[in-house]
Amino acid sequence: MKGGSNVVIEPHRHPGVFIARGKEDALVTLNMVPGEAVYGEKRISVEEGENKIEYRVWNPFRSKLAAAILGGVDQIHMPPGSKVLYLGAASGTTVSHVSDIVGPEGLVYAVEFSHRSGRDMLNVAKKRTNIIPIIEDARHPHKYRMLMGMVDTVFADVAQPDQARIVAINAQHYLKNGGHFVISIKANCIDSTAQPEAVFAGEVKKLQAERLKPQEQLTLEPYERDHAVVVGVYRPPAKNKGE
Amino acid sequence: MDVNGNFLCFHNTLKLEFYTLHPKLFTSALTNQLLGLSVCLLIYLKHQDNAMSSWKKASKTNQKTHRERHQPEARAHLGLLEKKKDYKKRSNDYHRKQKVLKILRKKALNKNPDEFYFHMINSQMVGSRHKEKIKPDTHTPDQIKLMETKDLKYVNYKRTIEHKKIDKMQSSLHLLDSANQVKNNHTFFVESTDEVKNFNLASRLDTHPMLLNRKTNRVRNNDLQNLSLPQVSNESLEQKKKVYNELEKRLNREKELSVIQQKLEIKKFLKDKTTKKPKQIKPGTKDAPLVYKWEYKRKK
User: Fold this and answer.
1) What is this model's ipTM?
2) Least Cα separation, residue B164 to chain A (angstroms)
3) Are the C-beta atoms of A222 and B182 separated by less than 8 Å?
4) pTM
5) pLDDT, tens digit, for every residue of B166-193?
6) Is B188 on the interface with A (CB under 8 A)?
C-alpha cells in the first residue's frame, strides 16, 4: 500500500491481545470464529502475507478486563492454553474475548446466575468450543462441581457485596495452589456511602484473610469511575527462608 | 430630397454623400451639374418626414461631442464643479421633499381634533420607531404544563439519540492516547520495606523505562526485540483525527443536553404545589442545575 497501511496490528503486552492503530484506535482480540461477531461488535480484517486474519474489537467502556488491560495492569494470568473460571459472565461478551485469548487449547468456565443473560451466553458457547457455560449461583460452587476441573485463574465480576467470599469459596474448590485471581470491584456495589479507596482497601483485607494474596491493584479511569481491579495469587508456595 | 433641403446622391460606385444646399440653388445645381457627377440618382422624400432618421443618427458620428467643463485650475480651491448629472439628483431630491412637506402641511390643516382609531392605542413609539404593541398570548395552566413536558421530552429524546451515537462510536474508538494521559492509581503489594526501597517499576513490569508512560501497551523486553511494525499511512491518521473530532463534539453536546434536562426537571418539580416549598441549597451554574432540598416524607 502507498505510504503505509490503513490499519496496523500491534501485539500487546498480554499474549492474545492486540491493538489496532491507524484508521482504527482500538483494543482487539484474534477472532477464533472468523466471519462472526458475538454481540454486534466491529471486526477488523488484516492481510498478513497471503491469508486474511480477523480481529474483534473489545470495548473497554463495557468490559472491566479490557479497561484494566488498557490501564496498564501488569498481569492478567490468561495466557493461551490456560483454564479460566469466569464468575459473573453475564451475556458472554467479555467471555468471548477471554475465549479468544486462551485460544482453542484453553478453557473458560463461564458462570452466570441469571437465566436471561445466561441464554445469550449459551448462544456464544455454541460457536466456541472452549467455553463451558454454567447457569448456576456462584455462591454454591459445589452445584457445578460435575462440570469443572482445576483452573489456573479465577476472574470475578459479580458486583455483589459478598464478592470476596464468593471468590474465596470458588478458589477453595477449583483454583490450584499458586493459581491467580483477577477481581473487578465496583465501590458502589460493596458500600455506596463509603469512599471508594476505603472500599477497595476493605476488599483487599477480606481477600487476604481468605489466603488470596493481592499483588497489584488498579483503578479503571478513564473508562470506569470508582472501579478497581485487583490481581493476586492464591496460596503461593512458601518462600525458601534460606534465600 | 427631404424637407430640410438635404438631397442624396448615389455615385455610380454606390457611395453615398450628403449635401446641404439652399432650395433655390437646387435647380441650378441640377442644371449646371455643379457637382460634376456623370450619373446622379435623386431620391425625393417629400412625403416621408420621419423616415430615414437612421441617416440623422449616422450623421452624428462625425459630430463633435461637447463635454461639460471641469473646474478651472484657478477655482480648484472651491472643490469639484457640479455637473448636470449631479444637479439633477439634487434637484429631484429637493422637489420630492417639498412635495411631501406640502402634503403634510395640508394634512395638518385638515386635522380633526376628535379623530380616534384603535391603532392609536395599539401602537407606541419604541426608541424613534413606531411599533405595534405585542399582546401577551394566554394559555390555560393545562396547556402550559403540556408545553413544558413536551420541551422536557424533546430534550430527553435528543439526549438519548446523542448518547446512543456516542456509545456506538466509542465501541471502536478507545481513546488510547488520552488513556495514556489520564491518571489512575496502580498499587503494587510488596512484602517487606526493603522491597519498597528497591522498587523499580520498569523491572517489575519487565519493560523498557521509555514505555512506562505508555500505559495502554507496555511491551515486555523479550517481545520488544522482535517487534516490527509497518508504517501507518497519513490518510488513515487524518481520518482517525476527524472521527475523534466528531466524537468530542457529540460528547460536549450530550453534556449540554443533560444540563438542560436537569434544569427543566427541577423547574417541573418546583411547580408541584402539593408538597411543601423546598429549600434551595446551591445556586444554578452554567453546567449544573439549582439544588433544592425537599422535606423528607415517608411514602409507604
Assistant:
1) 0.91
2) 13
3) yes
4) 0.73
5) 999 999 999 999 999 999 999 999 988 9
6) yes
